[in-house]
Amino acid sequence: MKALLILALPGLALAAPAVAQHAHDHGSGMAMPAPASQPAPAPTQDDPHAGHDMTPAAADPHAGHDMAPDAKPSAHRHGAPAPAPAADATGTDLPAGTAPPPQVQRDRLADRFWGAEAMARAQAHMLHEHGSMTQRQVILNLFERQFRDGRDGYRWDGQAWFGGDIDRFLLTTEGEATRGEGVEAGEVQALWSHALDPYWNLQAGVRQDVQRGPDRSYATVGVEGLAPYWFDLEARLFLSNKGDLLARFEGHYDQRITQRLVLQPRVEVELSAQDVPESGIGSGLSTIEAGLRLRYEIAREFAPYVGFNWERRFGDAARYARLAGEDVTSKGFVAGIRFWF
Question: Where is the signal peptide (predicted)?
Fold first, then answer.
């Protein structure tokens, strides 16, 4: 029985479409009432705006304004920007004029609260503290004991000044002495110092020698200041009351090793236009002195130091030293203090 059913299934599947088709054909052959005929509408042309957004436009906020096109630009200014309106012109775009410049405002806002007289006093006080104050200083760059071959001695070099940023009165002194023999050579200078710029000063004044030989008085002029790379330099000319012309050049440099340890090389050169036998000075290059000192700044105002100093006389100055029984070259260790207040 099951075998018969299985064999009959293909036949049933083929017969089903045929039955459906027969039913459809039977229905289509039935008489149906025809609908009333209507006249065909006249053909219409395609709308050229079909598919466009036909939403009504919003009201124009500029409606009623003069929308006339701008004047045609000149044929010679193709691509050039339109000139700025006269009200917006600045700088060199402004037309030339002959009106005087506006007056400088010299009043202070604080005058409205404290009064012009009180503020004028305050301003004068401020200017005085920021450039017009009178200052003073005393500094001893060298104050040392010299240990030489059987001729120990001491040496000093210092100055004191009083004044302002531009003009100062300067008093300097330097010299050396040998133990048991007193001062060999010393001098005092009184100078007026005038600032040429922030780094250099012009100095002029007088010098008085204090030594074992004949005393000399000099007129002096020179410059001193701070050269590039922080070299302190000094150059002076001296004209004595006897007509002797001398020159001196000095320089030193502070090489800071730490914040407190400073190494200072120092050089001094003396020249003369003529021989001065009574002072042991020869014409030309007379003396060169060089030293190296290492100081420790316990405070900026106080620093002990140790070092080595060398001095050599040349030319006639060396000859005068030999005639006097002195050494042409001297050298030795030094120890001293540097201080200022």
Answer: 1-20
190 and 206 in contact (C-beta within 8 Å)? Answer: yes
Identify the CA nearest to 170 among candidates 182, 158, 183. Answer: 158
Give the CA distances from residue 161 to residues 128, 165, 231, 248, 258, in Å, rounded to whole numbers and listed in that order: 19, 12, 21, 21, 29
Q: Which residues contact 95 (CB under 8 A, 6 or more apart)?
A: 89
Strand partners of residue 225: 200, 233
Are 211 and 185 within 8 A, CB to CB?
yes
Token pair in block for residue 124: 């004068």
Q: Which two tokens stand for residue 39?
A: 């006249």
Instruction: Dump pLDDT digits (tens) for 50-108.
Output: 444 455 444 455 544 555 445 444 444 445 555 555 567 777 787 887 888 887 777 78
Closest CA to 208 of 235, 172, 169: 172
Question: From the centroid of its chain, how far is CA 329?
Answer: 46
Identity of the residue numbered 78: H
Cα 297 from Cα 294, distance rounded (Å): 10
**Distance (Å, whole) CA 326 – CA 158:** 27
CA-to-CA distance for 237 and 265, rounded, in angstroms?
23
d(CA 306, CA 304): 7
How confident is the model over 17-29, as pLDDT tens digits?
Answer: 443 444 444 444 4
Q: What are phi and psi for residue 91, nearest 5 degrees?
A: 60, -130
Tokens of 246: 């001398």
Buried/exposed 327-337: b ≥16 CB within 10 Å, e otherwise: eeebebebebe
